[in-house]
């Protein structure tokens, strides 16, 4: 159908669909994605698709880079790892054209997804949606490369692992889309990772706050920044399976509707990529936390949990966790810059730590969740190394080897395998 005819059709909605790596994993799957897009187009919707690289491709490219340079130059690493998505936008457009749709691919730079210059974990600053909008109005399906942008000098940047989710939601926000659909290899957000606990159940809805906690605590079904974007711009966000046509997936909601019927705990998140570092025998005086963590933050390393013990005899111990990938770098900063400077006794580290968290807005109105969590872990002989809480979550750091056991017993202890009444 020529575009002129299409323009007269009633446009029902503007939908952004994001397809992850598994969903784009083979020519056949790419054709399936094209079919789904065609279905929405046939209903009269405007569709913008954001895609990831084919599954395994980003890992392959990172490994390749590391074969050439042990610590790859960040700018060049982004040049390399952004290519996976350049391949899939082209392939999906071909598949769309093959079934008679108009389609046009855009790299992040072509859209102009402007980011800061923090290579490999850049943040989106703004999106110029003018060109996309014009092509949409001409009847085309727009296919945008996820995970990538450009900084103000035109350097290619990437948004951190799982960053295509963030591209999807950010594009939806910029276009004020009616809905952003995240298609993945599970049919929604579950009470915990269904690969670890087969009894996990799909949640029909999850509040934005809970999703933010789940994502930040390690549930990689959505990248944390995508949830932040959804919250900031009130994007209607839904997680769905790209492998079935049935099911409503999981809707991220902004009100605590049906709070009465909701379980106290909505889910369990975990993260096995933690590393714990302790600075021993630190002089117990003002400014010490800053002197320890300042240089770490200057190196753009995110610090997660922090614990400072009560001082004894004028000294104290200071522990915190970082992503395991940043363990060596952090240890180096502490041993060579911080320790001599502040006169600490020693710096020790353990890169086999893991974090388990229970999350739920119901915690606000219920007591005893922490004690139930600690008792459950104690009964399995699992030692808790660090604890941190907020209004709607409790996290503990434990030895990595007990992670899956901890997740399973907690899932059961909080009755997450049962339908809520
Ligand atoms: P994609 O390639 O589509 O972006 P991801 O692998 O990034 O997919 O995210 C989907 C995966 O997230 C699932 O396969 C599942 O193993 C994992 N996951 C972790 N926690 C959850 C959860 N609470 N609910 C659903 N999936 C989860
Ligand atoms: N391809 C990127 C990754 O593997 C981005 C994404 O899949 O969201 O991290
Ligand atoms: Mg992902």
CATH class of the largest domain: Alpha Beta
Q: Please report the distance between the alpha carbons of the first and last residues.
A: 50 Å
The helical percent reads 25-40%
- What characterizes the major β-sheet? 8 strands, mixed
Can you give the mean pLDDT?
A: 93
CATH superfamily of the largest domain: Acetylglutamate kinase-like
Q: Largest beta sheet: what is the strand line-up?
A: 3-6-2-1-9-11-12-10
- Ligands: adenosine-5'-diphosphate, aspartic acid, magnesium ion
What's the architecture of the largest domain, going by CATH?
3-Layer(aba) Sandwich
Q: Beta fraction of the residues?
A: 25-35%
Task: Give Rg in angstroms.
Answer: 23 Å
CATH third-level topology of the largest domain:
Carbamate kinase
Task: Write structural notes for this entry.
This protein has an eight-stranded mixed beta sheet with strand order 3-6-2-1-9-11-12-10, sandwiched between helices. The chain has a six-stranded antiparallel beta sheet with strand order 14-15-13-16-18-17. Strands 4-5 form a two-stranded antiparallel ribbon. The chain folds into two domains: about 5-185, 3-Layer(aba) Sandwich (Carbamate kinase); about 265-415, VC0802-like (2-Layer Sandwich). The protein is globular. The termini are far apart. It has helices spanning about 5, 25-40, 55-70, 75-80, 85-100, 110, 130-135, 165-175, 210-215, 225-235, 290-300, 325-340, 370-380, 405-415; strands at about 15-20, 45-50, 105, 115, 125, 140-145, 150, 155-160, 180-185, 205, 235-240, 250-255, 265-285, 305-310, 315-325, 345-360, 385-390, 395-400. Helix 2 (about 25-40) packs across helix 5, helix 11 (about 290-300) runs antiparallel to helix 12 (about 325-340) and helix 13 (about 370-380) packs across helix 14. By secondary structure, it is α/β, with parallel strands linked by helices. It binds adenosine-5'-diphosphate, aspartic acid (ASP) and magnesium ion. Adenosine-5'-diphosphate binds near residues 20, 195 and 220.
């Amino acid at each position: 159908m020529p575009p002129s005819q299409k323009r007269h059709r009633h446009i029902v909605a503007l939908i952004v669909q994001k397809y992850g790596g598994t969903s784009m994993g083979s020519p056949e799957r790419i054709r399936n994605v094209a079919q789904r897009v065609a279905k929405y187009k046939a209903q009269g919707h405007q569709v913008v698709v954001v895609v990831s690289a084919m599954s395994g491709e980003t890992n392959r490219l990172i490994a390749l880079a590391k074969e050439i340079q042990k610590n790859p130059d960040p700018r060049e690493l982004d040049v390399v790892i952004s290519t996976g998505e350049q391949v899939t936008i082209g392939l999906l457009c071909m598949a769309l054209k093959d079934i008679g749709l108009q389609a046009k691919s855009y790299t992040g730079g072509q859209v102009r997804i402007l980011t800061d210059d923090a290579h490999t974990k850049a943040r989106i600053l703004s999106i110029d949606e003018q060109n996309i909008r014009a092509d949409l109005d001409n009847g085309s399906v727009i296919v945008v490369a996820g995970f990538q942008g450009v900084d103000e000098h035109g350097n290619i940047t990437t948004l951190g692992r799982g960053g295509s989710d963030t591209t999807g939601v950010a594009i939806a926000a910029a276009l004020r889309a009616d809905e952003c659909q995240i298609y993945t290899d599970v049919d929604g957000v579950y009470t915990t990772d269904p690969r670890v606990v087969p009894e996990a159940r799909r949640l029909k809805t999850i509040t934005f706050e809970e999703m933010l906690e789940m994502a930040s605590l390690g549930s990689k079904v959505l990248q944390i920044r995508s949830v932040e974007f959804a919250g900031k711009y009130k994007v209607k966000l839904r997680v769905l399976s790209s492998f079935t046509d049935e099911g409503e997936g999981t809707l991220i909601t902004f009100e605590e509707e049906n709070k009465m019927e909701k379980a106290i705990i909505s889910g369990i998140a975990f993260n096995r990529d933690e590393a714990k570092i302790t600075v021993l025998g630190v002089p117990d005086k003002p400014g010490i936390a800053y002197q320890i963590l300042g240089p770490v933050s200057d190196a753009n390393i995110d610090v997660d949990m922090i614990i400072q013990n009560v001082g004894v005899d004028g000294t104290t111990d200071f522990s915190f966790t970082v992503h395991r990938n940043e363990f060596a770098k952090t240890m180096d900063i502490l041993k060579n810059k911080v320790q001599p400077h502040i006169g600490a006794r020693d710096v020790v580290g353990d890169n086999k730590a893991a974090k388990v968290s229970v999350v739920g807005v119901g915690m606000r109105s219920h007591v005893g969740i922490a004690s139930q969590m600690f008792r459950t872990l104690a009964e399995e002989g699992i030692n808790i190394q660090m604890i941190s809480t907020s209004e709607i979550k409790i996290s503990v750091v434990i030895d990595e080897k007990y992670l899956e056991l901890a997740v399973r017993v907690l899932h059961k202890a909080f009755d997450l395998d049962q339908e809520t009444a």
